[in-house]
Amino acid sequence: MAYLSKDLSVLAYANGFTLWHYATNDTAAAIDTSGYFNPAADMLRSGDIIIANLEIAGTQKAGLFFVRQAAAGTVDVADMTQVGAANTD
Fold it and tell me: How far is the C-alpha of 40 from the C-alpha of 53, rounded, in Å?
């Protein structure tokens, strides 16, 4: 798949920082490819954080993407830091 603007929403904004939420069936590797969020370049800023919910083949994952660059129409996010990777109960 590709980036879908309807799946990106603002959770909080303060002091020039925005916390976003994004839900998709794309893999973390696809999302952290430079250019995935280029269509949102006019909204995202360097330093923003995107909380992502991914569902790949019925397996849910969640993680954080740090926006490394968002300028001149180009967005690059760092590799996803996964949240809740292990369940030991």
Answer: 18
Residue 37 inside a domain? The answer is yes
Per DSSP bridges, beta strands 49-56 and 17-24 are: parallel
**In-domain check, residue 27:** yes
Q: Does residue 88 fall inside a structural domain?
A: no
pTM for the whole structure: 0.90
57 versus 13: the higher-pLDDT residue is 13
Q: How many domains does the chain have?
A: 1
pLDDT exceeds cutoff 80 at 1? no
CA distance 66 to 25: 19
Hey, what amino acid is at 39?
P
* Residue 59, φ and ψ in degrees, nearest 5: -100, 120
pLDDT exceeds cutoff 80 at 12: yes
pLDDT of residue 65: 97
Q: Is 33 helix (H, G, I), strand (E, B) or coil?
A: coil
